[in-house]
Amino acid sequence: MSSPVNHAGPAPGGQLSDDEIIVQKMPLLLGLLAGAKAGNLGDIRCGVVSQNADRWQTSFWTGDELPTAHSLASEAIDRGEIITQDAFSAVEVESLGIQQSLTGGENSRVSSGNVTRERSSAIDDSVAPGTPNVALMLSIGNAPAPPALLRTLAVTLGRFLVLHRDRQNDTRRLWQTSTMLQNAAQWQQLDDDDELLESVAQCACEVLSCERATIFLWDKSRRRLIGRPAIGIEGGVLEVEDDAGIVGEVLQSGSPRWWSAGGNDGGRVNRRIDQAQNFNTHSLLAVPMVNSRDQIIGVFEAINANPDDHRSGAFDAPDVRTLSELALHAVVAIDSQRTRVNLTRTRDRLVSQAAESNPLIGNHESIRELRTNATKVAPTDLSVLVLGQNGTGKEVLAQHIHYQSERRNGPFVAVNCAALVESLLESELFGHEKGAYTDASSARQGKFELANGGTLFLDEVGDMSPGGQAKLLRVLEERVVVRVGGSQPIPVDTRVIAATNQPLQDLIAAKRFREDLFFRLNVVSLTLPPLSSRGSDVMLLAEHFLDHFCRQIGRAVPKFDETSRRAMIMHPWPGNVRELRNTIERVCYLTTSDIIHEEDLMLRPIEGGIPEFPANAMRHTSGGTIINLNEATREFQIAHIEAAIMACGGNMTDAASKLGLHRSNLYRKMRQLGMSTSE
Ligand SMILES: Nc1ncnc2c1ncn2[C@@H]1O[C@H](COP(=O)(O)OP(=O)(O)OP(=O)(O)O)[C@@H](O)[C@H]1O
């Protein structure tokens, strides 16, 4: 019959060993015995011997030690009865209390949860490694002690040991559980596979006090188990067949298995792995890893129980319970890490798609400069004011900034301030509480809250009411919103990019726009030039929209002929890029030919005929400030040459002749102006 399971482990708070308990309690018991006999200890000879990992040792002795004590103890334990020899009677130290502790206590507590509770029956003592055997021998007055007295003493000592071991187990269990929980909380933060599995394995080594631990995840289709961390394995991948060795047994049976050296079942251990790792496995414990759908996803293996912390020098039943619990935590961490990684990938894909779906197209110097400035301003949280006529792409630029910033994974929310009356605008931006209005039947978040962690694009900010302006200023300064009808400040982390096509300075002078709000919004200002001043960008955008709409409706992409190119280059585009987009959309739907002619564009006639040079070129300014005459002349020349080249369908000889230049002089002029001549 086996002795109680004892699990010392790296004792949290320094605990006594069984031997120390025996040495502490035996004099007390013998004193009581001597008192009961009204005699002295002189005629009492008593000893306690124990067997640990096949070695017998004397734990306690009083009087002359019996030379055959170890063999007597061995016989008493093997036969499970009192043995008498050379004036001594000997019995195994085990009691009803000890047995209850072993079966009722340990096995039923081996694991928790539906899956493993059912499997705990698989932990049978025949497989369990040996636990220390303890025997008591007693001689009184040079004669074997009476059986009843011997038994009483053995049971009492047994109870002391059980109490001590239970307390020790409880303390250790508490420490193990809190260590596992602390680790499991950190696993939720880890996104790297290897880092997670390494941390889980390290935790197993810590709570079980063993040398190594490996998580074998099951590649069902290839019928392989992939072990990680693969310490010492060349190439860093440890792969075994899914039915090989003890790990394979666990996978196939769905039950824990343990093993220690010394038996005749050494073949169960895969020595090839030991050889590859230059390692020697002397004890091993493996438990199944079962997910919430009751599917086995792998095997968790712990190797080489630390003999200083494991009384038997091998893993025991509480270790099975501990590793099974750790396996549950590990499965949850692995599952949630996989879900997180998948979600992150999906989110990144969607964000990239969103960023690519509305690109800021343009090669004109002004657009390139805007792109550079947007890249500089994107990583900061500075407020940006985007200026430009209607349809020039202010929202596109705001999105471009958002998708280049750290907030790219957060929302981009756009509000057109001109489209809403004052009362609605406030509710739209800041939200409202239930009952704030007659028809406010429930509370509602405003755009500031919805854009939390992202960017709020306030279009037509110049049209905001004075009340709205005051509230907006407060939110920008205090970073909290108060819903209409509410009093609770709600913190928001929202970047604001505002836009307007109105001259805000004039509105300030007319007291229609708050100056303090202007300064708050205008930390950085970016100006989009009218489309008519962007030279060949007109065609770049036209080709982009043509391609886009043709794809959308599934028709072959037609080509612009020279007349349509010229018309588009010369058109003043008062509605800017939006007008161009609408024009091309209409062409895609209404024409069927492979070639698009000028009349297909159905452009509105330009008052006063086709201008000699792009409209608004003289107004083209950098960042809203008037540039000097030389620079303005240079910009005009560039735009004019680009327009001529585009109008001639790229034919440089024609363009030069239209411009009154020789072809080679045109090239020279372009180089002087810093224009590309490569095409
Ligand atoms: N540089 C660009 N590249 C690609 N598309 C653009 C560009 N600029 C504008 N667009 C397109 O033109 C249309 C109008 O752009 P957007 O709404 O950004 O202009 P806006 O200046 O904000 O207009 P409004 O002042 O009227 O609100 C949109 O369909 C947008 O996709």
Automatic annotation (TrEMBL):
Residues 360-589 form the Sigma-54 factor interaction domain. Keywords: ATP-binding, DNA-binding, Nucleotide-binding, Transcription, Transcription regulation. Coiled coil: none annotated. One of its GO terms (molecular function) is sequence-specific DNA binding. Residues 102-115 have a biased composition (Polar residues). Pfam families: AAA_lid_14, GAF, HTH_8, Sigma54_activat. One of its GO terms (biological process) is regulation of DNA-templated transcription. Residues 102-126 are annotated as: Disordered. PANTHER family: C4-DICARBOXYLATE TRANSPORT TRANSCRIPTIONAL REGULATORY PROTEIN DCTD (PTHR32071:SF57), TRANSCRIPTIONAL REGULATORY PROTEIN (PTHR32071). This is DNA-binding NtrC family response regulator. It comes from Aporhodopirellula rubra.
